[in-house]
Amino acid sequence: MAKSKRTRPNQKTKRRSASRATPQPERRDFLKLARNGAIGLGLASFTGFFAVRTVQASLHERDLSRLGDGKLTVVQVHDPSCAMCNALQKATRAALDCFGECEIQYLIADINTAEGQAFATDHGVTHVTLVLFDQKAQRRSVFNGVRKTAELKDIFSAHRDLYT
Fold first, then answer.
1. Is 85 helix (H, G, I), strand (E, B) or coil?
2. Are 97 and 156 in contact (CB under 8 A)?
3. In this structure, are residues 75 and 131 in contact, taking their beta carbons and an 8 Å threshold?
4. Cα–Cα dist 156/135, whole Å
5. Which of 55, 105, 109, 128 has a CB 3.0–4.6 Å from the CB of 119, allowing a cystine?
6. For residue range 23-78, what is the model confidence (pLDDT) as tens digits?
7. 102, 155: one domain
């Protein structure tokens, strides 16, 4: 029977096997994690801020109780699922960009809500319609259908000149 030779692992082999088993976190790894976490937190904060502002602006536009608060007002009777309504909304916003919020305010009567449907019924209009009001909430003009931005600028300017 041959004697088996026992060998002892040398120090280098012990160190290599120990380092493979449980890697120790390094400072560089921690800094990468901290950087990536800060970037992620910043992006999440920006996204949340943008989402909140967008929702607040949308709710502000849909608040028909602001009608008659001393400002000239354009109310669009709107169906969000209607392509023509969306085209009219885009052209209206572009036309109103040259006016200040303090000159003419823009409101939306969404016909998918009870308040919007009541507004449309009270004024005898359907969607794809703009209704122009003076400062005392007196209806002054009604425009049906999609209009070009330049035409709407002229309409809004004439409305402002007549009622201010």
1. helix
2. no
3. yes
4. 14
5. 109
6. 677 878 878 887 887 787 777 766 665 554 544 445 567 788 888 888 999 999 99
7. yes
CA 56/CA 99 separation, integer angstroms: 21
Residues 80/112, Cβ–Cβ less than 8 Å: yes
Contact 76, 25 (CB under 8 A): no
CA atoms within 13 A on the CB side of 157: 9
pTM of the predicted model as reported, rounded to 2 decimal places: 0.66
Distance CA 151, CA 63 (A): 26
128 and 157 housed in the same domain: yes
Q: Which residue carries 């007549």 as its tokens?
A: 162
Q: Which amino acid is at 33?
A: L
The answer to whether 99 and 149 are in contact (CB under 8 A) is no
16, part of any domain: no
Report the first-to-last Cα separation within the chain, whole angstroms: 116
Q: Which CATH number do you get for residue 109?
A: 3.40.30.10
What are 114's two structure tokens? 């009870």
**Distance, CA of 19 to chain centre:** 51
Residues of the domain holding 156? 63-163
Distance CA 112, CA 118 (A): 10
34-to-24, 40, 41, 56, 118 alpha-carbon distances in Å: 17, 10, 10, 33, 54
